[in-house]
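Form 12-C: Joint structure prediction
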Amino acid sequence: MLNDTALHSHLKTQVPDNDWYKRRIIVLLCLVVPVFMLLLLRLFYLQIVEGGNFRKLSEHNCIRLQAIDPPRGLIFDRNGRLLVDNRPSYDLSIVVRDAKPLNATLQRLSRYTRMPLDALWAEIEKYRNQPSYKPVPLLQDIGRDMLAVLEVNRYELPGIVIDVRLRRLYVNDQSAAHILGYVGEISSDELKSPRYANYKRSDIVGKAGVEKTFENVLRGERGGRQVEVNAAGQLVKILKTVDAVPGNNLFLSFDLDLQQKAEKLIDNVHGAVVAMDPDTGSILAMASSPSYDPNMFINGFSQEQWQKLISDPFHPLENKAIQAEYPPASTYKIITAMAGLQEGVINDGTTLFCPGFYKFGGRDYRCWKKSGHGSINVTKALAESCDVFFYQVGLRLGVDRLAFYAKASGLGSLTGIQLDHESAGLVPTSDWKKRRFKVSWQSGETLSVAIGQGYNLVTPLQLCAMIATVANGGTRFVPQIVSKIENASGDVIKKTAPEVAGHLPVSPDNLDIVKKGLWDVVNERYGTGRIGAIPGVEVSGKTGTAQVFSRKTNDTENEKQRTERLRSHAWFVSYAPSDNPKIAVAVLVEHGVHGASAAAPIAREVIRAYLSESTSQPSGEAHQ
Amino acid sequence: MFDRRLIENFDWVLLLVTLLLVASGLITLYSAASAGMPVTQAFYFRQLMWFGAGILVMTGAFLFNYRKLDQYAYIAYGCCILMLLAVLVAGKYVAGSRRWLALGPVSLQPSELVKVAVIMVLARYYSRSATVKGMGFRELLIPMLLTGIPFALIVKQPDLGTAMTIVIIAATMTLFSKIEKRTLVCIFICGLVTVPVIWLFLKGYQKQRILTFLEPDLDPLGAGYHIIQSKIAIGSGMLFGKGLLMGTQNSLSFLPEHHTDFIFSVLSEDWGFIGSALILLLFLFLIVWGLNIAHGCRDSFGILMAVGISALIGWEAVINTGMVMGLLPVVGIPLPFISYGGSSVISMMLCMGILMNISMRQFMFE
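Section 2 - Result
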């Protein structure tokens, strides 16, 4: 006999034998059988006890699921003025299996809707492959008159379904079209992308502008309900409902008045205006001309309208403020000046001589002023936009040091504004040229780059951000297009805070020298941008005239005689008031020839409108 | 080399039951496929091909002595884990989760094969470590690890249903091999304590997902709707069913996933109580038969393998049919032999092959 502890340790180490396992298998068997009995009982309950009821429910497929689409968020300007609304529209569809007799119903429908019977049949034919309980869409946005007729005669139109759908309404037509964008039915490519994982066919999504970039904010959450319907497809009762969550409302950064003012100013020309708050990066206006009416995307185009829109050589759909790239031309001299001063190749006392041309590498590089500027320092060179001065500064710096300052000013990279299809522009470096063309950089090319020609490319938004950075003393902000987001009940969900993208690597003293030059541009009698001046407000700025093709030395042709397409683009970048800037503006007029005459007056009027408005309003209101 | 007695001892009953289940699965899939979109005839033929491959796998699985599996268990397990890792890195995205590994024209769901591998390693481990008194924490550490690794990898896909199946099978095999009473109580109490703590740390949407999982009615547009439609389909079959290809719920594609997880409701609608009860009884018979093979087996590895395989089929059948009848939460677990899906077919046929292997060698002495 073993004692207790010995038995214990014996048991602990004892390897189970077959009988031990067999006993446990019997236990398992005893557990399995009752579980299956329970399943059989459930089957009996469903199929025999309740079977009759379920059979009845299944015969008409009575339980259906209906989606409840959330209303899309609205879009307002910064002061709460409605820009994008939802309007109800009535869509007619028909459930084929409920519309018996189909032919007679369609005949009546054809009479009431004045839609040919063949066309109705064609629609039904199109959806032949879908289950017959699913509605076939027949007519969209039928209007209140037809709605009334159909409702009155509904008893003889079995199976018809009239859905109320919300459609987008762009309240001010063309205004801010490029910022707002438009919506449309989701495409098959979009459906495949993980970005639209929760979407289904025929969903409406943002296709351009903030409608697209803020899709997640505007969309809301779909709801739905389980309903029981009778044999004619009519609702008997609602079983369960999950409410839709409306989309959030978007408040944009600009004021509608200033935006429309900017649009009107460039209405007759092609180009872009961008205005920004230098202290926050908030966009105060962004206009691109020519424009389009986003409502056309909602209500449908005629073939002719669509052709006209897409074949227009001036690309109305393109937001020139962020998508189009132009040579910065003389506005780039701001960067060359900053780089020269900061790198010590010049100081505010350095004078260089301009005889009207600069000889380099056996070639004459011309100044825009044939007679020359004589001896000139950096502030005056900015004010008079002397090419020869900046040729020499550029040569002393070399292209890569210039590129460093250009990139630090935000050129050559995306500004990060939350709009689609932004272009990055181009800041050339010697490495870039080697990669791109497999050829070394030529010193002569540095001359072109130093005055903003050559390979340089910028967008109007980039130049606006650049001049805003100079204006506020060197802090570069990410341009913001949205000021705040509210939910449908008006609670603020997110308020846009200024976001710093970088700082200018330029000392305050050197920046002040450049800013003096920019003040001279508008305020000195020899300045190239005098036309941008506003009585009572000090404006600073810089003109630019971007050559569309390179100027040949023996070119005697007059600018005016060139065909429209070959004329130079006009730039004006500016800020005001000079000592405490509240607004920075960049204007580009395509083929406007001279920055001073074509672009500066537009910038002037934008600044005038903004400053007069914000002084007449209680301060703080317009800036928050 | 090949023993005549093996043929004499071949388990014809098991083969017959397997083929009956496979046939009813194919017929139901044909019915679902004939209903048209989105399941087409191509599904039916692909499934037929998978069964062809499955028969080969099954044959391969009973030709050699199953005790070899004991030797190769960890290698098979390691291969499966590697495949799971590959899925996480290079798997195909379908409806938001990565479960499939594309191998040329076919795609494989390694998580199905992992189930068999886990049964193998646990059978090997417990056949060496089980004691009459029961195992303590020290002995349970390795099985926990062996189960935890594939569990974590499959949760990551994410495929909660399959991950939970693995845990449930492992738990069944562990309890069968006996846990020390004190340890069992400890584990139970730990569970009771940790569940509320984890609940506190979950985010709102995670809680919502679990609540919906337990109570489909909370999601009337998703799981709740599926369950209602499934119950209508099953119930409307009544005693004799609507007949093959006559199911309306199914043909109007009211049923979601009607070729995979919800195939039992298609079957019940077509064949009524008589047909579906027969299927349930076939499953019950198969499990009892599997346990009977374990009962007749004389080495502990074989017993544990047979018990594990029976547990796998039993749990999947119970959870799947329980779900479509509205008794259990909605989880993505296939009905063995019946649901559409190549990987599930292959792993089920592999299991049957192993069971046959154990069955036909139970009278052999080596």
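Section 3 - Comments
The CA atoms of residues 44 and 50 of chain A lie 9 Å apart. The first helix of chain A runs from residue 4 to 13.
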